[in-house]
Amino acid sequence: MQASVDQVLRDAEFDGSPVPLDTPGLEGGAYLAALAHNGQRLTTRHILVMVRDDHVRVGFPYNAQAVVLVRSIPGARFLRDLTAWLVPLAKVRDLHAVIPQMEESLARASAGAAAPEQGADEGAIVAAAHERRAGRVLMLFALRPVARSVVRVAADARVIEGYGRTFLLDAKTASVSAPHLSREVGRPCCYAYIRAATPDETAVLEKYEAFIETERSRLRGLGRVR
Question: Among 31, 75, 138, 208, which is disulfide-ready with 178 (CB 3.0 to 4.6 Å)?
């Protein structure tokens, strides 16, 4: 029988034809040689197969269906220290037969695990975009403060972190984002992206406001301002 198998392998190697995997007696190392000759592999995207002497080591992420399939191979056993399965080399044909089903089950599990994560990532991006849009105010380009300035927005201390692109104000944008600019339609404007000021930043703003008020009072006393 072995002589027949050796002859099949030699003939295939000689004329370049594939080795019929159903050849009687084609087992163990000869079966692996036939797979290699045919350009086939036992290792897949989710399954790692390594040949070790008289056995084959099979590693894959835990999957109940895949475990049932590999356990169905006579002589297969699990090694906890290696977190891998050992399959007798003589049973490599049986392993090859169940690998497509194992890979399919592992691929489904991997795709199912990735979907919620992808959804969470997309949700986080959308939430961040909403948060960014919520933290912005429309202002005339000519009157915008320097970026990083601390200003009052609706009586609250806010820091201007940056500005969006400049565009001409239209009636719809003004009515939605800045009713007080309704008379400024057609003028260049932009969105200022803001955040809440820290206590220290608020203190600096209040000190500046106090200075301005003191100066205004002094000038009022001199009759220079109303």
Answer: 138
Distance CA 39, CA 26 (A): 16
Query: Tokens 């592999």, residue?
Result: 41
Strand partners, 88: 55
Query: What are the pLDDT tens digits along the chain (226 aa)?
Result: 555 655 555 555 555 667 677 777 778 788 888 777 777 888 888 999 888 888 989 999 889 999 999 999 999 999 887 788 999 999 999 999 999 999 999 998 888 765 555 555 666 555 555 555 567 888 888 888 888 889 888 888 999 988 888 889 888 887 777 787 888 889 999 888 888 899 999 999 999 889 988 888 888 878 765 5
pTM, 2 dp: 0.45
CA distance 132 to 199: 22
Closest alpha carbon to 58 in 112, 19, 105, 103 = 103
- The beta strands (E) that lie in 102-166 are given as 136-140, 150-153, 156-163
Provide the residue count of the chain: 226
Dist CA 12 CA 6 (whole Å): 10
CA distance 78 to 86: 6
Q: Measure the CA–CA gap between 163 and 220, rounded to whole angstroms.
A: 35
Under DSSP, the state recorded for 101 is H
